[in-house]
Amino acid sequence: MTKSLFDSFDDVSAKQWKQKIQFDLKGADYNEALIFKSLEGIDIKPFYHQEDLEQINTTVSENSSWNNSLKIEVSDAIIGNKKALKAIKNGAESLHFIILKETINPNYLLENVSSNIQVFIETTFLSLTYANTLNDIAKNSGLDIFLVTDIIGNLANTGNWFTNLKDDHQTLLDIVEKNKHLKSTISIDMGLYQNAGATMVQQLAYALAHGNEYLNYFKDTTSFSLKNTPIVFKVAVGSNYFFEIAKLRALRILWSTLASEYNLLEECHILAYPSHRNKTIMDYNVNMLRTTTECMSAILGGANTIQNLPYDDIYNLENDFATRISFNQLLILKNESYFDLVTNPASGSYYIESLTDQLAEKGLLLFKNIEEGGGFLSQLKSGTLQKKIKESAKKEQELFDNQTITLTGANKYVNPEEVSPALQKPIFSEKNVRKTLLEPITKHRLCEVIDKKTQ
Questions:
Q1: What DSSP element (H or E) covers 363?
Q2: Average pLDDT estimate for 416-439
Q3: Among 450, 406, 411, 408, which Cα is nearest to 428's?
Q4: Nearest to 151 by CA among 133, 124, 178
Q5: Which of 91, 113, 121, 349 has the fewest CB atoms within 10 Å, counting from its CB?
Q6: Over pLDDT 90: what percentage of the chain?
Q7: Which backbone phi and psi does 234 adopt, to 5 degrees?
Q8: Among 217-226, 380-389, 398-407, which stretch is predicted with the lowest mean pLDDT?
Q9: What is the residue-wise DSSP string for 197-210?
Q10: Is 110:83 a contact under the CB 8 Å cutoff?
């Protein structure tokens, strides 16, 4: 047997590495010069060692492959169907339909969609009848249909239930119990928290507490049927590359821990997509680079399904060019970069394993604090969660404003000859005066103030 090259070198401990670094610093303080303090409260060291894994006992079962998905907003079933079939022809393995009206016939929408295509149906309304129709389609066609239903997410996003707490929960219970042929019936919109400015620890803890509200409600039902169906987590991915990889991995650990307490399926289905929060109007083509790295984070973090964001999504209406470019990015990552050929690519990385463990630990601690404080709905109603997110968003905004956080072409390296594109849809946060039960969690982009000055 050939002797390993590494056998020729002596082992070097973490302590020895640190001593060498301190010597090279020539008197400069190690912690001040080389330790970076993140918004998540995690200190980033200049190097990581095998010793960092000695206290980590949790392993992550990562997804080694993923489905490339395309999101389609549907206001007309026939037009939606044409877009879906075109997307499949162009390489889509999954479709994410946003159904805007209950009058849209899903039979027409899903006509000729082959059974090997994964289908997500997200509605802007709550309807047992609609869910029953989808269940019949799944039964007769063999389609894998995920019904993306999140009544608590709707409350957090809009400030109101679809109807009221009691009726919404009863409808959801009926959907869960009466639609056995759907691959999933409950989802958790974790992306709402990210786009509003929550830290990753907050995103994880709020998603866990959000899901725990569902599990608490369903635990006493006589025919609880989530034991063999996964919860779908919609996760927005930002530009903090390694942290985002660790965030998805930590989510699997945390959900597995919580689900095991209820004797439920410990696996979750992660539907990941790039964030809006760091997207810009100035030098908007740079958004393509941002979405590429964000999709890479989603892949390496083990997302099951990934949909990209068109580079002009924040200001432009849907168009063939931007949609084609965004989907080709995913095709290149899979078919030309071969990201799907490596199983558990992040496993064993000292840095990512350490980040995963710390995010999971901090997320679990915050989750426990939320539960001790009355739970997710209680803290949402009191405005506590909204306040905490605003505080985190303000800190991040300050870092962006003083250029500690850089968005190329927007707050740094600005092209003085840049011309703002024509805006085809509203891009700024507007106060929508309406009666709500509670203060909704609102999404904000970091560049909004800068963008307003260019208009």
A1: helix 350-372
A2: 81
A3: 450
A4: 124
A5: 91
A6: 75
A7: -90, 115
A8: 217-226
A9: T--HHHHHHHHHHH
A10: no
Contacts of 388 (CB under 8 A, 6+ apart): 198, 202
Token pair belonging to 122: 């997200």
For residue 61, count CB atoms less than 10 angstroms from its CB and return exposed for 0-12, middle for 13-18, buried for 19 or more: middle
Q: Which residue has the tokens 């840049």?
A: 418
- How far apart CA 112 and CA 102 sit, in angstroms, is 21
CA 271, 275, 276, 282 torsion-angle sign: negative
Q: Residue 291's closest CA among 242, 340, 330, 345? A: 330
Count Cβ atoms within 10 A of the Cβ of residue 290 and give its class: 0-12 exposed, 13-18 middle, 19 or more buried.
Answer: buried
Whether residue 198 has pLDDT greater than 90: yes
Note the pLDDT tens digit of each residue in 204-254: 999 999 999 999 988 876 555 677 789 999 999 999 999 999 999 999 999
Distance CA 160, CA 343 (A): 42
**How far, in Å, CA of 250 to CA of 422, rounded?**
40
The residue among 278, 313, 277, 309 whose CA lies nearest residue 295 is 309
At 109, list the tokens.
């929408």
pTM of structure: 0.94
CB 301 within 8 A of CB 247: yes
**Which of 91, 124, 268 shows the shortest CA–CA distance to 183?**
268
